[in-house]
Amino acid sequence: NNSVEVFDLFDYYGLFWKYVFASILSSIIILVGFVLLIVPGIVFATKYIFVQVLVVDKGMGAHEALRESARITYGHKWNIFWFMLAMIGVNIVGFLVFGVGLLFTIPLTIFTFLFVYHKLVEMGGLMVVNQANPVPASSSVPTSSPEVALIPEVK
Known about the structure:
- This protein has 155 residues and is mostly helical.
- 65% of the residues lie in helices and 0% in strands.
- The protein has seven helices and no strands.
- The protein has helices spanning 13-36, 38-47, 51-58, 62-73, 77-96, 102-124, 146-149.
- It is globular and about 50 Å long.
């Protein structure tokens, strides 16, 4: 029986706070990068672009999502940067069509963003997060890179 009740809305209440904390933490990191100089902000924005998606999709905490986003975007920063610029351009075009075009371009942007996320997860394999010993699902993507090491592991 797949009946839906109003109280089903509160089943993921804990996920909400994980999402809020991860969003605030990644935003602060990106903002600090932009305050230091524009380039570090752009690097952090491409590195942590999938933090919120990982929290919702995999139920990760903020720390794990930051580390995993850094790992799956490793080696793809330029592609993600150009993708972000393209999506901004698509939404600007949607806005220029009297704003009505945004009704098409915003969902298009969201779906392509999620498509890129799933492709990166497919390519790199999602890390199986174990607090004591994180182990990558695929050894083809480096997990001990300097970028990943920026976020210390919590023991």
